[in-house]
Amino acid sequence: MLKFIFRRLVLEALPTLLVLVTVTFFLIRLAPGGPFSTEAAMPPEVMAAVAAKYRLDQPVWQQYLGYLADLARGDFGPSFKYKDFTVNDLVWAAAPASFRLGLFAFVIAVIVGVAAGVTAALRQNTWIDYSVMGVAMIGVVLPNFVLAPALALVFAIWLKWLPAGGWEGGKLMYVVLPVAVLCQHYISVIARITRGSMIEVLGSPYIRTARAKGLPTGYILRRHALKPALLPVISYLGPAFVGIITGSVVVESFFGIPGIGQLFVNGALNRDYPMVLGLTILIGALTIFFNAVVDILYGVIDPRIRL
Amino acid sequence: MNTPTTAARLMRPLPPLPGLDEALAQSIQGRSLWADARRRFLKNRAALASLVILGLIVLLCAFAALPSPHAFDDPDFENMHIAPELATAHWFGTDSLGRDLYVRTLLGGRISLMVGALGALVAVLIGTLYGATAGFLGGKTDSVMMRFLEILASFPVMFLVILLMTFFGRELWLIFLAIGAVSWLDMARIVRGQTLSLKRKEFVEAARVCGVSRWGIITRHIVPNVLGIVAVYATLLVPSMILFESFLSYLGLGVQEPMTSWGALLEQGAKAIEAAPWELAFPAGFLVTTLFCFNFIGDGLRDALDPKER
Amino acid sequence: MRMPQRLALITAAVACLPGVFAAEVPPGTQLHPVQEIVRGNGTEPATLDPNKAEGRPESSLALEMFEGLVSPDINGNVVPGVAEKWESLEGGRAWRFTLRSNARWSDGSPVTAHDFEYAFKRMVDPKTASQYAWYLGKASNVKNGTAIVEGKVPPSELGVKALDDRHLLITLEQPVAYLVATLAHGSLMPVPRKVIEKYGDRWTEPGKMVSNGAYKLAERVVNERIVMVRNPMYWNNAKTVIDKVTFLPIVNQSAEYQRYRANGLDMTADGGVPPEQLKQIRREIPSELVTWPQLGTYFYAFNFRKKPFDDVRVRKALSLALQREVIAEKLVGTGETPAYSLTPPNAAGYVPVVHEWQRWTQAQRENEARRLLAEAGFTKTRPLRFELLYNTNENHKKIALAAAWMWRRIGPVEVVLVNQEWKSFLDSRARGEFEVCRYSWVADYNEPSTMLDLFHSKHGSNDSKYNNPRYDAIMEQAKVTSDANDRARLYQDAERILAQDFPLANVYHYSVRRLIKPWVKGYGRDPEGRILTRDLYILAH
């Protein structure tokens, strides 16, 4: 087990990350428009001073080596856009909001998604199946950017139950609407996967045996069916967890949440090279880490899989 | 004692378990895979109804704009943001420039369906070939190819798309390509998994013994055998392609005005959600219905063909 | 070039006009017990360091926390700030500012002329990398300002000198009559040298930042909010009513609007009126939509390097075809006015010109446009086909669509719309990769030169590469003309040249437009769109 973890996290993850950094580093410099291009053009001398300050006057390979050296010390560099901060400052400040939001959404998505999937599987091809899956599917048929203003309109403006946006350090009132919007998509995917694999498991011989023995449905579900049916769900959870934490771009910008998603979009739009690089590395590392966690979990749940 | 004991639970009669009964029924009768699948699919009422509705929507998008007296791109400054009405033949109302939403919704549908279908096609083609190759060749090649996939997967998609779109301008077919090019990763993983299990099957061994080339085995034996699951995922890819296009529209990277798509219309409509609800309601109605249909069809296909998820 | 007469030390002490300054609460007003306000700021500022301000989001915050030599009153007039009076010396070639004795930093230390000298030199120093580094040299004509930016002269040579703690001498390259107007700019704030030298780039953090304006920084969460509280050390603190102001950097206008509706916001950012919701706003909260004319112009520029836009007939035809009234009043419809000249009619020291074609009816203009197009050789088989470049934005899209339609009406014109996100757009424009392109130009100070200089052949943002020596000469002449009437005439001449050569098709003059809750009072009609919290108060509600 330890050997496996070592292999996954050190021998495989590090080269992957290095490739990711390299590709991003050079690719972002190809994007049209520089970080310091502005509407009122700056005099060339000021541009030169700016370039010197951010090492942009060096040859690209030298910038690259310099970046790697900083990176090795855990320094993501200064933000090109937000001049009062370094990328480290900004990411550390933004991470808690995204994490809190993502965690809430993730937990709700798993609970509701699995419950809906199991219910639908047990009543396959009945109106219960259709309506449960229909409701769960809202998340994959309605874009976030429609859901967010619609919910804000109903609950904040018409009913006045909840605020229309803001974060206030993540007070519960402010979390409800963003979480509702964010978890929709994941609920539907999880419900879908659960339903599919549950149907498969229910059709397998050992469940039929259990039913032939006259065991009650609830008991069969809990003792025999749930665990194997959840395996595919778990393999989805790794990437989903990262996605839900880092990918809430629309939700964060609509509800004004100071999180990673907003930083990333602004970084890309402003050509804030260090910001985009830093977040790419962070997201990449998280993805790799959680995929490894999923593999380990897999082994714990299903002893047949040898790591 | 209100909580039922295990014994009490054991005494309860069996509730109906349709999925189980069906599975039991199927294992008794022996039929060909496809006939079986067709039967199962036709039994799925949601999937069947979806197929009919989807057909109707496609027909509407293709032909129903003809009777309207309005062009899709003519502004009308006297009729901006008017609600649906029969007198002016603005059956779905107008947008903030006074353009007719009926015509635009149907036009948007054409673009969205095309983006969805072509994007899915690109993703399926790349994904199937990539996955089949990696799975079949195995060993070092496989692990290199999979590592490459992992790198691509950890690359922020949005940034990649912005980059692609800003590089290559904003041609419509490039949007298909861009969307397809970033969406084949899951497809490749699924196909690889299938291939790995197919590889050890006797008929592949037989082909190998007969001296069929590796490429030949991949294209002649592996790919046809994973087509079932590919078809299922293609159906499920179409709606996610359409949604992805709408996300691009939200970022302002979608189709170029005055052309439009459901995503672009939705992005407009979401802004006018209170002032002109019809601007959101009609395109959203079409989009949601279409995506529901695709999803139900996809689920129906999967239930019918291969209930495995991995 | 006519040199202005050298007058020996004319002392022209400026009379302090009774401009409204700080909150003027009419007697009998019922104030709300809690004087706190939440405002939109449009976007997250790039920095809170005033010398490094990049545009509106930064400079509007700088003006809240800092006070320059001069300051805008509620209607945008320049009134004394830290300087209580000033006089011009040597015929306007040098200016001496006398600072008020009671000006204090938020840490209690006095604001001195040395602070200004430090700030101004810091701003022009290329090492500071300020985006407005050019401003003191180009707009204010401060001695050596441009040479320092170009790296030819060290920053210490800037024509700004503290004579003692209370007197600042600004020396100019040449007399500039409107110098004082240029000094109200948000980037020209004094900064606390000791604090900056102690903390470096981090001096703008809450707890470290020291400022001299009506408010001081209390809290900052990037992409969420910036909170400022009353600065008790501010010399005019007694006149400040609002105790706490929160700025929200909400980019998404619909989101800002919904939060405004849900009472999460008392005032949206400048421009914070979502065009898609306008009809509803007019129906339900018409009194909360507050607009007035702004010093800025929206126009389309033609690229002289791309055929056929080197042909004045094509440019003129396209300009004539635009139905400006329709765009300004119907399409945008938040107080914008149709534009026939680049300089907005309300610019100080400008007397509007009326061009001949401006008096024609739209039908006449379109007929002329048709004639010009035909004359330039465009027919059904050989249509005028071009791309219209604009940056991704609701309003720009609408106007581009309308313009394309209006151009189609005058004959064989095919317009392809191209929208790009902001940075790509700037890149395309700067590299001249466009045919017709959206532009907007907003005044940095209230004087026609801030607008008209754009089409000087040497101007860094003149991306259409319009080059007319006569125009350049007029603009250079205007700069050294001290008589206001003479200057106004020169600006008129400049506008007439633009209306002959048509390097641009003016569309409309901007308006300041915000949604403001009825209980917020105290603002005036500043043509530069500033609303300073220190002037505001909240009614009981």
What does this protein look like?
The complex is a heterotrimer of chains A (307), B (310) and C (541). With 307 residues, chain A is mostly helical. Chain A has helices at 2-30, 44-53, 60-72, 87-122, 127-136, 138-141, 144-158, 172-202, 205-212, 217-246, 249-255, 260-269, 273-301. In chain A, helix 4 crosses helix 8, helix 4 runs antiparallel to helix 10 (217-246) and helix 7 packs across helix 8. The longest helix of chain A has 36 residues, at 87-122. The model of chain A has no long low-confidence stretch (mean pLDDT 84). Chain C has 16 helices and 18 strands. In chain C, the strands form five sheets. Chain C has a six-stranded mixed sheet. Chain C has a four-stranded mixed sheet with strand order 1-10-9-8, with no helix packed on it. Chain C has a four-stranded antiparallel sheet with strand order 4-5-7-6, covered by helices on one side. In chain C, a hairpin with a 3-residue loop joins strand 8 (215-221) and strand 9. Chains in contact: A-B, A-C, B-C. At the A-B interface, helix 1, helix 5, helix 7, helix 8 and helix 9 of A face helix 1, helix 2, helix 6, helix 7 and helix 11 of B.
Largest sheet of chain C: 6 strands, mixed
Number of helices, counting only DSSP H or I runs of 4 residues or more of chain A: 13
Ranges of chain A where pLDDT stays below 50 over 5 or more residues in a row are: none
Structural class of chain A: mainly alpha
Report the principal-axis shape of chain C. globular
| Element pattern of chain A in H and E | HHHHHHHHHHHHH
Low-confidence stretches of chain C: 1-20
- Shape assignment of chain A: globular
Mean pLDDT of chain C: 90
| Widest β-sheet, arrangement of strands of chain C | 12-16-11-15-13-14
Strand content of chain C: 15-25%
**Mean pLDDT over all positions of chain A:** 84
Main sheet: strands, sense, barrel of chain A: none
> What would you call the structural class of chain C?
alpha+beta
Strand content of chain A: under 5%
